[in-house]
Amino acid sequence: MKARKSIGALALSAALVVGCAMPAFATPTDTTGADGKYQDWSVTKDVDDEGNMIAQEIEDGADGASSTPVYIDVKKSNINVAVPLELRFVAETAGGELLCPSDGVYGVWNYSMNTAVYVNKVEVSYNEDANRDGENWLLTTDDTKVGSGVEADTANLGNIMVKLVAPDATGGADSYVLDTENAKVPTRAAAWRIEKSNTATNDDGTYATGRAFPLNFEKASCLSSIVQDADAANLMSQGNGADKAAANAIRLKYTISTARPVA
User: Fold this and answer.
1) How high does pLDDT run on average in the chain?
2) Spatial contact of 134 and 142, defined as CB atoms under 8 Å apart
3) Tens of pLDDT along 26-83?
4) Are the beta carbons of 251 and 124 closer than 8 angstroms?
5) Cβ atoms 178, 123 nearer than 8 A
């Protein structure tokens, strides 16, 4: 009995030493389960060469030097955002203003119920299958190359210029003339923010109804030159398989995340 009591006391003493020596903060490993949650947790501690824990000296009094660093890991959640499958413009044969979607028709929808998101970048590229290097429709930022009666110098069909306009962080508008060389990167002051989704409830529970972020077009700055070959440019006259059709002249690529743009 005495031996058992002695062993029990020794075990209790060892437990107290371990409890005092180990920091009270665990950090996650890289192992995650199917649901994305951490499965394993490891405790950081100081040990000597033989693997024994090193006792920590803690000073008495309010001015003691003891402290516990606190680290925060952030787990990135999936966001649910929708963009339109296609966008169409119509050019007049004589050039001038493009017919483009009305305000509020084109935009990005946020279906994420827990977080707002930001459009942090807009990039433009040519459709290399139907419009390699702008050979049919050349996207320009030079307003002298578009307009009624203006001839296209190199493009087979014509030049186009398109100005995109979006709400900014101040309640005003921030614009971008589409450019294949320079992407649009909204700053913190002109953040393109899409609030978290509106919700509704039915018998199955709460669901996202989405929240729209309008990407409008400034009509006076959306222009084309003279269309060189209206029949070749007209998708409707040739059918969906036409090699020179105006479909997919350019592509818009959005970088969207929960990260607020930098200043």
Assistant:
1) 80
2) no
3) 445 555 555 555 555 555 667 778 777 777 666 666 565 667 788 888 777 788 999 8
4) yes
5) no
pLDDT for the residue numbered 64:
58
pLDDT (0 to 100) of residue 263: 78
Contact 122, 90 (CB under 8 A): no
- Sign of the Cα torsion 187, 191, 192, 196 reads positive
Asked which of 11-25, 48-62, 117-131, 239-253 is least confident by mean pLDDT, the reply is: 11-25
Mean pLDDT, residues 205-230: 93
The CA distance from 184 to 192, in Å, is 11
Q: From CA 239, how far away is CA 237, in angstroms rounded?
A: 6
State the Cα–Cα distance between residues 72 and 118, nearest whole angstrom.
23
- Which pTM was predicted? 0.69
Assess contact for 125 and 134: CB atoms under 8 A: no
Residues 84/213, Cβ–Cβ less than 8 Å:
no
